[in-house]
Amino acid sequence: MMLMYAHRQHHAIVDALKKGEGARVDALMKEHTHISKESLNLSLPSLHLIAGAA
Questions:
Q1: pLDDT (0 to 100) of residue 22
Q2: How do residues 1-50 score in pLDDT, each as one tens digit?
Q3: How wide is the angle at C-alpha 33 spanned by C-alphas 29 and 34, nearest 5°?
Q4: How high is the pLDDT of residue 54?
Q5: Keywords on this record (predicted)?
């Protein structure tokens, strides 16, 4: 689900870039990086468990 949302965000960012909508690009990038950071923070405990099992 998160990957599909991120994919849609990427398309929106590229669309805004093509249209020269700098303020929109800025807002979309801030939202995208915030969501990506939160997703990574939620995944870190699981990644540590996987790494420790190796």
A1: 98
A2: 778 988 999 999 999 999 999 999 999 999 999 998 888 888 877 766 66
A3: 115
A4: 56
A5: DNA-binding, Transcription, Transcription regulation
Find tokens 């990957």 and name the residue: 3
Reported as half-sphere exposure (CB side, CA atoms, 13 A), residue 27 has a value of 6
Tokens for 21, please give them.
């909508």
Token digits of residue 52: 């420790």
Whole-number Å distance between alpha carbons of 39 and 20? 29
Burial class (CB in 10 A: 0-12, 13-18, 19+), 45: exposed
Q: Which residues are CB-neighbours of 10 under 8 A, at least 6 positions away? A: 32
Place of tokens 């700098």: 22
Contact 1, 9 (CB under 8 A): no
